[in-house]
Design brief:
The structure is a homodimer. By secondary structure, the first copy, chain A, is of the alpha+beta class. Chain A has six helices and five strands; from the N terminus they run H-H-H-H-E-E-E-E-H-E-H. The longest helix of chain A has 13 residues, at about 50-65. The first copy, chain A, binds a DNA duplex through helix 4.
Chain lengths: ~140, ~140
DNA sequence: TATAATATTGTAATGATTACATTGTTGATA
DNA sequence: TATCAACAATGTAATCATTACAATATTATA
């Protein structure tokens, strides 16, 4: 079993009950959840949980390199626990967000050669996933 | 001189005075403007212009393939008149948004091979641009 | 011109996020 | 163990980009 307390502490985040529960949810459900999704899943377990705490905690996790926000263009922000460079694919049929491996990132070299200092890279696709494609 | 009326008509958009003015601004200022930036620049020329008209017009342009929205993660949506596949780089110092050519898009092949039907691709970098890098 | 269709406008509503003040919890120290 | 300070969690209110909607204006066509 993973030691969530340790994960938080290593990044300088004090492991409160709420923070541990939220991190546990992120690690066990890699579904790029929104604040609302996290809140609704955890409220059963932590009945006093406030939505504000979820907002605060995710902002804190982000600042300390524990999650990354992903902006799919819809109204709510999603959060991703996977941090290494990868792309996202959002299916417009089922609305699921898929992680896509980037096997070849040579395309970044040209940008760096042109003198741009890249701190963050987001690659995002919209379309129809294999499962929904088959259904039609 | 470009015939803006024709550009709109070819995409099935009726060329009203407001629409022509907004399209003209987009074509002459490729700065990935927000609704607010467009509004503030055009209000001098069209004193009765409503912010709602700018919102409506950009949504209409988007639906008819005349502009694409770009989401930089800040609160306002930007719009881009350049439609061919390219990336964006946002400088965290000067806040400018740069267009970045994609010289090699082989990385898309793997995604397609995996059965994903890509309808839209967004590539977005955050970092420090060459000019701001030099200043420091 | 008359009339229908469409476009523009301004105000009000929406909804995600943030600000802020209050309350609760924890941990160190005497 | 009691005290106190630092920090965390909570709930409400504010913010602000965007959208909904109703009223007015404009345009196109018969």
């Amino acid at each position: 079993m993973i030691n969530i307390k340790k994960i938080l502490e290593e990044k300088g985040v004090k492991p409160s009950h709420q923070r541990i529960t939220i991190m546990k949810f992120m690690l066990e459900n890699k579904i790029h959840p929104t604040v609302e999704v996290i809140y609704e899943n955890i409220i059963k377990e932590l009945p006093t949980l406030s939505r504000t705490t979820v907002y605060n905690t995710l902002k804190l996790f982000e600042l300390n390199g524990l999650v990354q926000p992903i902006n799919t263009g819809d109204s709510e922000l999603h959060y991703d626990i996977t941090l290494d460079l990868h792309a996202h694919f959002k299916c417009i049929e089922c609305n699921d967000i898929f992680d896509i491996d980037i096997v070849n990132n040579d395309f970044l070299d040209k940008v760096k050669d042109d003198g741009f200092n890249i701190l963050d890279t987001q690659i995002y696709f919209r379309g129809i996933c294999p499962k929904c494609k088959e259904k039609k």
